[in-house]
Amino acid sequence: MGTPASATPSQTVGPFFGFALPYPDGPEVVPPWRPDAIQVRGRVLDGAGEPVPDALLEIWQPDADGEIARRPGARVRAGHDFSGFGRCGTDADGGYRFSTVKPGAAGDGAPYIAVLVFARGLLKPVCTRLYFPEDEAAHAADPLLGIVPDERRATLIADREGERRYRFDIRLQGEGETVFLAF
């Protein structure tokens, strides 16, 4: 009969994210021409501050009213619709960009975008959040930000680069490491 099956540990088998996961409109949660579109860009860096050129980022978020798309086909873009989901690979300089809308608060916390990072050397993706600098008053009441030590909180807050433009760099380890969430 043999021995019973048992769980096996995760294994690093990549990187091959560029083969099938990215798709042409992946970085466009909304088209960039929409009047309410914002741009979120940044870089993924390793512990030495070097770019990670073959990472893959996914973002998940509510719409501007704090509503999460739950209708059938919500992840399928049709013209100017909001999908709530985006996927973008990094370029040779570790850079990424998304066109989306600023989310409304969903629940009691501050508005945020959930970010998953898949990268070589990671057994599983890491998860973090991107908060917006202009929501400082809401940050004080956010349940997650309330448990993050003061000296690490800035790693979760994007920098404003201009009208409707934000920068959010993600450092995977080392000095200034981004706060990652465990589930």
UniProtKB/TrEMBL annotation:
SUPFAM superfamilies found in the cross-reference section: Aromatic compound dioxygenase
Q: Which domain of life is it from?
A: Bacteria
What UniProt keywords are attached to this protein's entry? Dioxygenase, Oxidoreductase
UniProt GO molecular function = protocatechuate 3,4-dioxygenase activity
Please state the Enzyme Commission number of this protein: 1.13.11.3
Residue intervals of the Intradiol ring-cleavage dioxygenases domain:
37-105
What the entry lists under Pfam families is as follows: Dioxygenase_C
Put simply, this protein is called Protocatechuate 3,4-dioxygenase subunit alpha
**Which InterPro entries does the UniProt entry name for this protein?**
Intradiol_dOase_C, Intradiol_dOase_core, Intradiol_RC_Dioxygenase, Protocat_dOase_a
Q: What class of enzyme is it?
A: oxidoreductase
Keyword Oxidoreductase in record: yes
Query: What CDD domains does UniProt report for this protein, alphabetically?
Result: 3_4-PCD_alpha
Q: Which gene encodes it?
A: pcaG
Identify its protein family. Answer: Belongs to the intradiol ring-cleavage dioxygenase family.
Task: Using the record for this protein, list the coiled-coil segments as residue ranges, or answer none.
Answer: none
